[in-house]
Write a structure and sequence with these properties.
There is one protein chain. By secondary structure, the chain is mainly alpha-helical. It is built from 16 helices and 3 strands. A 3-stranded antiparallel beta sheet has the order 1-2-3. The longest helix has 22 residues, at 120-141. It is globular and about 70 Å long. The mean pLDDT is 94. Bound molecules: coenzyme A. Coenzyme A is lined by residues 8, 220-221, 224, 254-261, 313, 316-318.
C-alpha cells in the first residue's frame, strides 16, 4: 500500500533538472548555475533562451543566429489571425493565447507517422510566436488591425512595437526584457510540471505547452499577477493599504502576489522587479502604481507579522510585476500572457529535457472511497443513498 505524501506534493521530489535551481530558504534562483542576480542586469532574454535551450550562454555569433531565427519565426499563419478576428471581443486573453498556441500545431509539419517535430527549433518557434499572439489579440479586441512583427527588434521591444505600432523607448523595452529574463524558468513549478507530464506521454511540444498554459492561468500560479494588479486598483491610494490588508485577512482572503510554496524569504526576483517598477515610474513621471505596491507590501508584512510573529509570507515574483506591466500600459488581464511569453523558454527547455531521457510520469493515489461491493441494477437503485455514505 503506497503512503500518502503531503497534500499538494509539498516537499516531494518528482524528478531532476539541469535548467534551474530554487533555494527557497536563502532566496536564491539560478539558471544552469548562473545566479538570477547576475543574469537580470547583464543578460538579455535571448541570451537566457539560448542558455536554457542549448545548455550554455551564447557567443556573439550564436546569439546573432538565434536572434535571426526568432525574427523570422514571429509571424502567425493567416487562418489563426482570421480566427482571432472572429472571437468575441470579450474573450479573456489567456483563453485566446491557449487556444491559438494549440492551433499552431495544425500548421506545423508532421513526419511519416503524423507526429510534429519536438525539437529545439519548434521550441524557438513558440518563443518567437507567443508575443505575436498576445499583441495581435490586444489590438483585435480594441478594434485595430494587428501590426506585423519586426525581425530586427528584440523579443521585448518587438512585443511593445506590435501592441502600439511604435518602437518603444529603450527603458521600456529594457524593463520588459528583464521581466522576461526573471520569469524564464523556475524549476518544477505547477505549469512546468504539467508540461513535463504531457511530454512524458510523448505528446508533442504544442500539446505540452498548451497543458502548461492551462495550468498557468489560475490565480495561485500565473494568474496572481493579474489578481495583484486588481488589488492595486482596489487599494487606490498608498494610505489605504493597511486597512485593505486588515479587511482582506479578516475575510480570510489572501493578498495576491504574497507568499510562495518554495520561498520562505522574499522572492529574489521581487527585488529586481521592484527596482524596475521604480525606474519605470521615474521614466513615466508617475509613481502611482509603484507607491501603492510599495505600501501594500509594507502593510502586508506588518499585519501578517502581527498575526504570526514567525511569518514567512513575503512578496513573490507577481507582486511587483503588477506596477511594472501597468507602467508599460499593458492591461491587467494580459499579465498572465506576458508571464507565459517569458516562461515559454523554461517550459520548452523542460519539455526537451524530459524527452531526452523520458519515462512516463504516472504517480499513485491512495483510495479512500467505499469498499468493493456488488453492482446494483438500475431498477433496484432508489437514488437516495450515496454509495460512500
Ligand atoms: N496572503 C495571506 N495569507 C497567506 C498567503 C497570502 N498571500 N499565502 C499563504 N497564506 C497563509 C495561508 O492562509 C495559510 O495560513 P494558515 O496556515 O493559517 O491556514 C498559510 O499561509 C499556508 O498557506 P498554503 O496555501 O498552505 O501555502 P502554499 O504553499 O500551498 O501556498 C501560494 C503558496 C503561492 C499558493 C500562497 O502563498 C498564495 O495563495 N499566494 C497568493 C497567490 C500568489 O501570489 N500566487 C503566486 C505564487 S508565485
Amino acid at each position: 500500500m503506497p503512503t500518502v505524501v503531503d497534500r499538494g506534493l509539498e516537499g516531494v521530489v518528482v524528478g531532476s533538472t539541469q535548467l534551474s535551481n530554487v533555494q527557497g530558504t536563502i532566496g536564491r534562483l539560478t539558471y544552469r548555475g548562473y545566479d538570477i542576480d547576475d543574469l537580470a542586469p547583464n543578460a538579455t532574454f535571448e541570451e537566457v533562451v539560448h542558455l536554457l535551450l542549448y545548455g550554455r550562454l551564447p557567443n556573439r555569433i550564436e546569439l546573432e543566429t538565434l536572434r535571426r531565427e526568432l525574427g523570422t519565426r514571429r509571424s502567425l499563419p493567416e487562418p489563426l489571425i482570421s480566427s482571432m478576428q472572429n472571437v468575441p471581443k470579450s474573450a479573456w486573453p489567456m483563453d485566446v493565447l491557449r487556444t491559438i498556441v494549440s492551433g499552431l500545431g495544425l500548421f506545423s509539419p508532421v513526419n511519416a507517422h503524423g507526429e510534429h517535430l519536438s525539437d529545439v527549433h519548434t521550441a524557438i518557434e513558440l518563443v518567437a510566436k507567443m508575443p505575436t499572439i498576445v499583441a495581435a489579440w490586444d489590438r483585435i479586441r480594441r478594434g485595430l488591425e494587428p501590426v506585423d512583427p519586426r525581425a530586427d527588434l528584440s523579443q521585448a521591444a518587438n512585443f511593445l512595437y506590435m501592441r502600439s505600432g511604435k518602437v518603444p523607448h529603450a527603458i521600456e523595452a529594457g524593463a520588459l526584457d528583464r521581466y522576461f529574463v526573471l520569469l524564464a524558468d523556475h524549476s518544477f513549478n505547477a505549469s512546468t510540471f504539467a508540461a513535463r507530464v504531457a511530454a512524458s506521454t510523448r505528446a508533442d511540444v504544442y500539446a505540452s505547452v498548451t497543458a502548461a498554459l492551462a495550468t498557468l492561468q489560475g490565480d495561485l500560479h500565473g494568474g496572481a499577477a493579474s489578481a495583484s494588479y486588481h488589488t492595486l486598483t482596489e487599494v487606490r491610494e498608498p494610505e489605504n493599504a493597511e486597512q485593505y490588508v486588515r479587511d482582506a485577512l479578516a475575510r480570510n482572503e489572501r493578498i495576491m502576489g504574497m507568499g510562495h510554496r518554495e520561498y520562505k524569504v522574499r522572492d529574489p526576483r521581487a527585488r529586481h522587479l521592484e527596482e524596475m517598477a521604480h525606474k519605470l515610474a521615474d521614466h513615466q513621471g508617475s509613481s502611482r502604481w509603484y507607491e501603492i505596491a510599495h505600501s501594500l507590501e509594507e502593510a502586508s508584512r506588518k499585519v501578517l507579522q502581527e498575526k504570526k510573529p514567525d511569518n514567512t509570507i513575503y512578496a513573490n515574483v507577481d507582486f511587483y510585476t503588477a506596477p511594472v506591466l501597468a507602467d508599460l500600459n499593458i492591461p491587467g488581464d494580459e499579465f498572465t500572457c506576458l508571464f507565459a511569453c517569458g516562461r515559454i523558454a523554461g517550459w520548452t527547455g523542460h519539455i526537451l529535457e524530459q524527452l531526452a531521457d523520458n519515462r512516463l510520469i504516472r504517480p499513485q493515489a491512495t483510495y479512500d472511497g467505499p469498499p468493493a461491493g456488488p453492482f446494483v441494477p438500475i431498477d433496484k437503485r432508489d437514488g437516495t443513498v450515496a454509495r460512500n455514505s
